[in-house]
Design a protein that fits this description.
The chain is α+β, with helices and mostly antiparallel strands. The protein is built from five helices and 13 strands. A six-stranded antiparallel β-sheet has the order 8-5-4-3-9-10, with no helix packed on it. A three-stranded antiparallel β-sheet has the order 11-12-13, with no helix packed on it.
Length: 251
């Protein structure tokens, strides 16, 4: 029973930040240990790990991320402002508020919510040399740098193509929409934000033989209760606990 509970806890603890990969895998891929006590009962187990990393557009479990965070390179910690409700989606037209491209507008091509970043097509770019080896000078490519969604970009109102603040409101039908605070115009969520690796449009997706059926996915198979895993097993099997614990005293 204990083994089943541990396995259930382990496989249900999936990361909501990195493509549903287990948190254990992400932590293990990022881990850099400065010191670890020997495995000996005479020592108190202690581990000193690296806590400051340079986060880029590469995922933390990739070789590119490890290359940017080699051992011995110290990075200043950058604090991420928590955002309660995300207002910009992939496919939105935004205006850049900082840098050389200040005042220019572009389409959001990628969102990295873990760092409050958005990538805008063709804007806020820098040049990067790749493939340099020996006499070969390499190739220079242009790459978009991320922009902070909090104060470096602003959503564009489609009615007059000007930057605006927005707020969430509800329509008479109960639908939650984005509304421009300046013009009152509803800014719809673009269809590009709904695209996945499996389909461009959800309505055009065709179920395959090995797909899990929609009715199976939507079926409610778990009802939360104020009980432990052992208590739920006892309830399902009709086991009733009749023993009364002995009284204990603090003195």
């Amino acid at each position: 029973m204990r083994l089943g509970a541990r396995l259930l806890q382990r496989f249900s603890r999936l990361s909501t930040q990195y493509s549903n990969l287990p948190d254990e895998y992400v932590e293990r891929a990022m881990e850099q240990v400065y010191y670890r006590t020997p495995k000996d009962p005479r020592y108190t187990q202690a581990v000193i790990k690296r806590k400051k990393f340079r986060f880029t557009t590469e995922r933390p479990w990739t070789a590119q991320f490890q290359q940017a965070n080699l051992a011995g390179s110290l990075r200043k910690k950058v604090f991420v402002e928590p955002i309660a409700e995300w207002n910009i989606f992939r496919g939105d037209r935004v205006e850049v508020l900082v840098g050389r491209d200040k005042g220019k507008q572009g389409i959001v091509s990628q969102i990295i919510a873990e760092r409050n970043w958005v990538i805008v097509e063709g804007l806020n770019t820098h040049f990067k040399r790749v493939g340099k080896k020996g006499d070969f000078p390499g190739v220079i490519i242009r790459q978009e740098a991320p922009l902070l969604v909090t104060n470096q970009v602003k959503l564009v109102d489609p009615s007059d193509l000007a930057a605006t603040e927005i707020e969430w409101r509800y329509t008479e039908e109960g639908e939650k929409v984005r509304v421009s605070t300046r013009t009152g115009r509803v800014i719809p969520i673009p269809e590009a934000s709904k695209e996945t690796i499996d389909y461009k449009d959800k309505r055009l997706y065709k179920e395959r033989e090995k797909d899990t059926k929609a009715d199976v996915v939507t079926k409610v198979t778990f009802e939360p209760r104020l009980e432990t895993f052992e208590m739920s097993i006892m309830r399902e099997n009709g086991i009733e606990e009749e023993r009364v614990p002995a009284k204990t005293y603090w003195y």
